[in-house]
Amino acid sequence: MKYNLSLLDADAKYDIELDKQASFAVWKVKHGLAPVESLAQAREGFQDPRHKAVFDESVTKYRSVMSI
Q: Considering the entire predicted model, what is its pTM?
């Protein structure tokens, strides 16, 4: 199945970007490139509460997947 991400609306595209940022942030913590506190610092960079919620959900998902 193919997906054309360019057809998504702006909010959906940004949600994908937030998920990608959360994945990278958790990866850095797992590999010792950043402290655990960096996850909270990354979260504070978002002003919109919805963006924080999406980021938090993704961090939770990736912490489980990466076992940290």
A: 0.90
pLDDT for 3 = 85
Residue 44 burial (C-beta neighbours within 10 Å; 0-12, 13-18, 19+): exposed
Residue boundaries of the structural domains of the chain: 8-65
Cβ(23)–Cβ(62) under 8 Å? yes
Per-residue pLDDT reduced to its tens digit, 11-54: 999 999 999 999 999 999 999 999 999 999 999 999 999 999 99
Q: Are 60 and 19 in contact (CB under 8 A)?
A: no
Q: What is the dihedral of CA 62, 45, 6, 4, to 10 degrees?
A: 0
Q: How many CA atoms lie within 13 A of 49 on its CB side?
A: 0
